[in-house]
Specification:
The complex is a heterodimer of chains A (219) and B (244). By secondary structure, chain A is an all-alpha fold. Helix content of chain A is 76%, strand content 0%. Chain A has one domain: MetI-like fold (Orthogonal Bundle), CATH 1.10.3720. Chain A is built from 9 helices and no strands. The radius of gyration of chain A is 21 Å and the shape is flat. Chain B is α/β, with parallel strands linked by helices and 244 residues long. Chain B has a single domain (2-240), classed as P-loop containing nucleotide triphosphate hydrolases (Rossmann fold). Helix content of chain B is 38%, strand content 25%. Chain B has 9 helices and 10 strands. Chain B has helices spanning 40-47, 68-77, 93-103, 109-122, 138-150, 168-184, 195-201, 219-222, 232-240, and strands at residues 2-11, 14-24, 29-33, 55-60, 63-64, 78-81, 156-160, 187-191, 204-209, 212-218. A 6-stranded mixed beta sheet of chain B has the order 6-7-8-3-9-10, with helices on both faces. Chain B is globular, with a radius of gyration of 18 Å. Classes of the chains: A mainly alpha (219), B alpha/beta (244). At the A-B interface, helix 5 and helix 6 of A face helix 2, strand 6 and helix 3 of B.
Chain lengths: 219, 244
């Protein structure tokens, strides 16, 4: 019979996994945002080589299954002498892979900006860097905050794949609890709730941030 | 002084400006008239370097528009007001006005904002200081556009069809401000369809036709039957625009 109470005993184990998932998620969101922003800027660069390199990056990482990527990073790289533990392998690969999606989202935001606004800034003598930091990026990030939110929610869900490289995150912890208790129904029900908490929390943050950043669009 | 010599501008195969010569002295108010596609806006966009010139030269106070370093100096001296306003949507009205003085002219933030407030007062929009452009009417946006340009304390004010996106009532509120500025002696180069306005504020009228200057006359000469109107193309243009 369905008996969630049995699970209470395993709460500390769930909680440990939850913390690891949250840590990997937060670090990877920050990492993928920084890398993605740089790639987006390269994508719209006037330099052909930069543009091509960025396009190559985006195409590569959007076309490799994430599972293959982490197997390569965790089991492949040690063969050539690069060993990184499971936690950081997870953070790095997630950051690198998700950055491709972040880059495309920010690029779309940049390309949607009215050219007249950028020309106006140019005509007032702003330097290139100032035009980007004071005008283009604030507008682009604001307009792409919701699609970025979807990318980051997807990132949280993708952390479950890290269970494949022995990282003790939420899914991995749940698998162990399920095989110990022989109660997969309750265990995975809890797992669903934990992921729900994480993604709803992020959604709420994004929605609030969206509202704050877009306050200027309310006519 | 703005000196334009044998200016050509092509967009691919399309030749938009075909040898324009023009001098604008400090304190002058010059209106550039002409039909659609005559190259009026392109001319103004060449002066502040938004369009790269194909050949010829433009000097603003002896700074060369073709030289990158000089161009930055030119942009500090020439402020543009745009047809579509092109305010920064993510900044409050006050920040829209103060952004360039703070970042380009390196003015002290507090001083720049005080100055911006003064400008807002002069266009009777001081109560809008903290709102965003999306919350303003077209006429209000353009008045802010003018404040943004004036905040740079420019030697030259370039007006690129500043009332073309406005209805008559809003046009009137913008023109009142520009007339006041013209009286104060600021040098203005105005591309416009408002013949009445050009007639009222200008010292000189330049009529562009197919990328060339057809007439460059004092206002009185231009609107006299023996002067500008004796040219059939100008007469036709003026009658089309409702000026007899």
């Amino acid at each position: 019979m369905l008996d969630p109470a049995v699970m209470m005993e395993y709460m500390p184990a769930f909680w440990d996994g939850f913390i690891v998932t949250a840590e990997v998620s937060i670090l990877s969101i920050i990492g993928s945002f920084i890398i993605g922003l740089l790639i987006a800027l390269l994508r719209i660069s006037e330099n052909k080589v930069c543009r091509f390199a960025a396009l190559f990056y985006v195409d590569i990482f959007r076309n490799i299954p994430f599972l293959v990527l982490i197997f390569f990073a965790y089991y492949g790289l040690p063969e050539v002498g690069i060993y990184i533990d499971a936690f950081w392998t997870g953070c790095f690969t997630l950051s690198i892979a998700v950055a491709a999606y972040v880059a495309e989202t920010i690029r779309a935001g940049i390309q949607n900006i009215d050219k007249g606004i950028i020309e106006a800034a140019k005509s007032f003598g702003f330097k290139r860097v100032q035009i980007y930091t004071k005008i283009i990026l604030p507008i682009a990030i604001t307009s792409s905050i919701r699609p970025l939110g979807s990318v980051f929610i997807n990132l949280i869900l993708t952390t479950s794949i890290l269970s494949a490289i022995t990282l003790g995150e939420l899914t991995s912890a749940s698998k162990i609890i399920a095989s110990t208790t022989f109660r997969p129904f309750e265990v995975y029900m809890f797992l669903v709730i934990f992921y729900g908490v994480l993604t709803f929390a992020l959604s709420a943050v994004i929605a609030g941030w969206h509202k704050y950043l877009n306050r200027y669009n309310e006519a | 002084m703005i000196e334009i010599h044998d200016l050509h501008k092509d967009f691919g195969d399309l030749k938009v400006l075909k040898g324009v010569d023009l001098k604008i002295k400090p304190g002058e108010v010059v209106s550039i008239l002409g039909g659609s596609g005559s190259g009026k806006s392109t001319l103004i966009r060449c002066i502040n370097g938004l369009e790269k010139i194909t050949s010829g030269s433009i000097f603003v106070d002896d700074f060369d528009v073709r030289n990158k370093k000089d161009l930055m100096e030119i942009r500090k001296r020439c402020s543009t007001v745009f047809q579509q306003f092109d305010l920064y949507p993510h900044l409050s009205v006050l920040d829209n006005i103060a952004l360039a003085p703070i970042n380009v002219l390196k003015q002290n933030k507090k001083d720049a904002k005080i100055k911006a407030m003064e400008l807002l007062r002069s266009v009777e929009l001081e109560e809008k200081a903290s709102v965003y452009p999306a919350q303003l009417s077209g006429g209000q946006k353009q008045r802010i556009g003018i404040c943004r340009a004036l905040a740079m304390e420019p030697n030259y004010l370039l007006l690129d069809e500043v009332t073309s996106s406005l209805d008559p009532e809003m046009t009137a509120e913008v023109l009142v401000i520009l007339k006041k500025l013209a009286k104060e002696g600021i040098t203005m180069i105005s591309v416009t369809h408002e013949i009445g306005f050009a007639q009222e504020i200008s010292d000189r009228i330049v009529f562009l036709d197919e990328g060339k200057i057809l007439q460059n006359l004092s206002k009185d000469e231009f609107f006299s039957d023996e002067g500008g109107k004796s040219d059939p193309r100008i007469a036709k243009f003026l009658s089309k625009m409702g000026n007899q």
